[in-house]
Amino acid sequence: MDTEELLELREKAHDRLQRQVGVTMAVFAAFLAVVTLMGHRLHTEEVVFQTRLADQWAYYQAKNTRAQVYAADAALAGLQGAPGAALASTFTKRAQDERLQADDIRTHNQELDGETQRAARRANRFDGAEVFIEVAIVLCSIALLTAIRGFWLVSFVPALIGIGLAMTAVLG
Fold first, then answer.
1. I need a labelling partner for 7 at 20 to 30 A (CA). Which of 40, 52, 109, 150 fits?
2. Helix, strand, coil shares of the chain as percentages rounded to 5?
3. Residue 165: which H helix or E strand, with range?
4. How far are the Cα atoms of 22, 100, 104 from residue 110, in angstroms, in the given order?
5. For the whole model, what pTM was predicted?
6. Gap between the Cα atoms of 3 and 12, Å rounded
7. How many angstroms separate the Cα of 134 from the Cα of each of 23, 32, 80, 85, 121?
8. Are 39 and 77 in contact (CB under 8 A)?
């Protein structure tokens, strides 16, 4: 083989590596777009849950306060003797109803808080997956710039970690 043929083979090998790395980067970039979108959506869902939770806790406080006001009104009505007894009974019943409703709201809020925390954990996993996929893309870029196949091969490690994190976010 003469020198020109060797240079030609080297060039073809380099071109092949560039194509492989380029296709790998494109696949990683597409996966990065999906992971980023899912992370953003889950962070938005988390904020919606947090807002709804804050509203529900305010509603709980209102019900609890109303129950206490009715209980105080019942005590005052009871001080009026026989004429206030019927009114005291009505206020006591309303106070109990408000307390029961407040307890139901508290139970619902605890469930909603769990959903909020779950959305936050899933969003954080997508964020982690995003970082690993970005590292994989950087390693591919280094492989293109240096024409060293090792960087391209190593890029699959963070990519697989990112895929694993994303899958746990999807399933969890």
1. 150
2. 95, 0, 5
3. helix 156-171
4. 48, 16, 10
5. 0.75
6. 14
7. 15, 7, 75, 73, 20
8. no
CA 117 distance to own-chain centroid: 8
- Tell me the one-letter amino acid at 31: F
Task: Provide the residue ranges of all domains of the chain, joining segments of one domain with +.
Answer: 20-171
Crossing angle of the two packed helices 3-78 and 156-171, in degrees rounded to 10 = 30
Q: How many beta carbons lie within 10 A of that of residue 154, not counting itself?
A: 17
Cβ atoms within 10 A of the Cβ of 48, count?
12
Instruction: Tell me the longest C-alpha to C-alpha distance in the chain.
Output: 119
Inter-residue contact 31 to 156 (CB < 8 Å): no
Q: What is the pLDDT along the chain (172 residues), one digit of tens a residue?
A: 666 665 565 666 568 889 999 999 999 999 999 999 999 999 999 999 999 999 999 999 999 999 999 999 999 988 888 888 888 899 999 999 999 999 999 999 999 999 999 999 999 999 999 999 999 999 999 999 999 999 999 999 999 999 999 999 999 8
d(CA 33, CA 130): 9
For residue 81, the 8-state DSSP code is -
Residue 110 CA to residue 125 CA, distance in Å, equals 23
Tokens of 124: 């954080």
